[in-house]
């Protein structure tokens, strides 16, 4: 299974360590196409490609080749929102994970979308359980 993991980069790297932990966990289910999102050296000021066009085109190719998109959406990111929209438009299975303990409120354009699964979680153990169920139960919960 090819998994596209989406997490904030320029939107802020407060959850970068969590992204790395999610990616390591996702690797037990299949190939994670976007391992660089967990790179602790990748900052919100940086980029992991030569140009923005290169990053966009490379990521979109990965996204369209993936079986599923899993996004951690607690840190608001325009890029993650765009990826979710493109995945939904392409009919992909999409799981969005959000920690409501923060002061942030998710965009209604994500939490209100009926064509994806939007799930709140509190602990990493809970998050892993949700991912396991989603991937094991044919992208449903
Ligand atoms: O350098 C990058 N590399 C990269 O793969 N992305 C993609 C993957 C992430 O899921 C998403 C993050 O978007 P943003 O940078 O707007 O927070 O965009 C985004 C950037 C920078 O915008």
TrEMBL record:
<feature type="binding site" description="in other chain">
    <location>
        <position position="19"/>
    </location>
    <ligand>
        <name>substrate</name>
    </ligand>
</feature>
<keyword id="KW-0378">Hydrolase</keyword>
<feature type="binding site" description="in other chain">
    <location>
        <position position="83"/>
    </location>
    <ligand>
        <name>substrate</name>
    </ligand>
</feature>
<dbReference type="GO" id="GO:0009159">
    <property type="term" value="P:deoxyribonucleoside monophosphate catabolic process"/>
</dbReference>
<comment type="subunit">
    <text>Monomer and homodimer.</text>
</comment>
<keyword id="KW-0326">Glycosidase</keyword>
<dbReference type="GO" id="GO:0009116">
    <property type="term" value="P:nucleoside metabolic process"/>
</dbReference>
<dbReference type="GO" id="GO:0006163">
    <property type="term" value="P:purine nucleotide metabolic process"/>
</dbReference>
<dbReference type="InterPro" id="IPR051239">
    <property type="entry name" value="2'-dNMP_N-hydrolase"/>
</dbReference>
<keyword id="KW-0808">Transferase</keyword>
<feature type="binding site">
    <location>
        <begin position="107"/>
        <end position="109"/>
    </location>
    <ligand>
        <name>substrate</name>
    </ligand>
</feature>
<dbReference type="Pfam" id="PF05014">
    <property type="entry name" value="Nuc_deoxyrib_tr"/>
</dbReference>
<dbReference type="GO" id="GO:0016740">
    <property type="term" value="F:transferase activity"/>
</dbReference>
<comment type="similarity">
    <text>Belongs to the 2'-deoxynucleoside 5'-phosphate N-hydrolase 1 family.</text>
</comment>
<protein>
    <recommendedName>
        <fullName>Putative 2'-deoxynucleoside 5'-phosphate N-hydrolase 1</fullName>
        <ecNumber>3.2.2.-</ecNumber>
    </recommendedName>
</protein>
<keyword id="KW-0546">Nucleotide metabolism</keyword>
<dbReference type="InterPro" id="IPR028607">
    <property type="entry name" value="DNPH1"/>
</dbReference>
<dbReference type="GO" id="GO:0042802">
    <property type="term" value="F:identical protein binding"/>
</dbReference>
<dbReference type="GO" id="GO:0070694">
    <property type="term" value="F:5-hydroxymethyl-dUMP N-hydrolase activity"/>
</dbReference>
<dbReference type="InterPro" id="IPR007710">
    <property type="entry name" value="Nucleoside_deoxyribTrfase"/>
</dbReference>
<comment type="function">
    <text>Catalyzes the cleavage of the N-glycosidic bond of deoxyribonucleoside 5'-monophosphates to yield deoxyribose 5-phosphate and a purine or pyrimidine base.</text>
</comment>
């Amino acid at each position: 299974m090819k998994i596209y993991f989406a997490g904030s980069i320029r939107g802020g790297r407060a959850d970068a360590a969590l992204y790395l932990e999610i990616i390591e966990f996702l690797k037990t289910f299949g190939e994670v196409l976007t391992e660089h999102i967990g790179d602790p050296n990748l900052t919100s000021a940086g980029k992991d490609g030569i140009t923005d066009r290169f990053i966009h085109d490379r990521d979109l190719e990965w996204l369209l080749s993936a079986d599923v998109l899993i996004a951690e959406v607690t840190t608001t990111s325009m890029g993650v929102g765009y990826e979710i929209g493109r995945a939904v438009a392409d009919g992909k299975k999409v799981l969005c994970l959000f920690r409501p303990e923060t002061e942030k409120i998710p965009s209604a354009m994500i939490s209100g979308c009926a064509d994806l699964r939007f799930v709140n979680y509190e602990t990493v153990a809970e998050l892993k359980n949700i991912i396991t169920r989603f991937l094991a139960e044919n992208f449903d919960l």
